[in-house]
Amino acid sequence: MTKMDAINHRILHELLRDGRQSNLQLADRVGLSPSACLRRVQEMERAGIIRGYRAVLDCEQLGIGFVAYVTVGLNTHTKAAQEAFERAIARAPQVRECHNVTGTVEYLLRVETADLAAYKHWHTDVLGVLPQVRSITTFVVMGSPKDDRA
Questions:
Q1: Rounded to the nearest 10 degrees, how much is the dihedral formed by the CA atoms of 115, 146, 105, 95?
Q2: Tens of pLDDT along 119-133?
Q3: What is the pTM of this model?
Q4: Hey, what CATH topology would domain 66-140 get?
Q5: What mean pLDDT comes out for the span 18-44?
Q6: Sheet strands (E) in 12-146
Q7: Which residue among 28, 102, 116, 122 is least enclosed by CB atoms within 10 Å?
């Protein structure tokens, strides 16, 4: 198991800030030699602590003008219903995140579409027709003063 000390935490912090920086830059920022820094990063990759690197996209330039969080309640609480719902959601490119949560609903989705009309179509013709769905509540994102997702 990888030891998570203060240096490893600094490495992760720096990689979250800029995952494309060179090993030389990263080593300098965390106060290690390049070889020691690279060994630590590779060890965290092998251990699965670092699972990958992602690009942060500009939604506006991609034509995504509508973002909402959607809660979904299922009509039955069976494993089969959950699996069927999750398979359907996996096929929906509008759903950027799907989380199985506790509380009064089973799922929290992050949905991104071009505009309100596109969301309404997805809500009505994709999500709304799934036989497992009992309830849908939409929370429209009006702004994101903090968003650390990579």
A1: 40
A2: 999 999 999 999 999
A3: 0.82
A4: Alpha-Beta Plaits (3.30.70)
A5: 97
A6: 66-74, 95-100, 107-113, 133-140
A7: 102
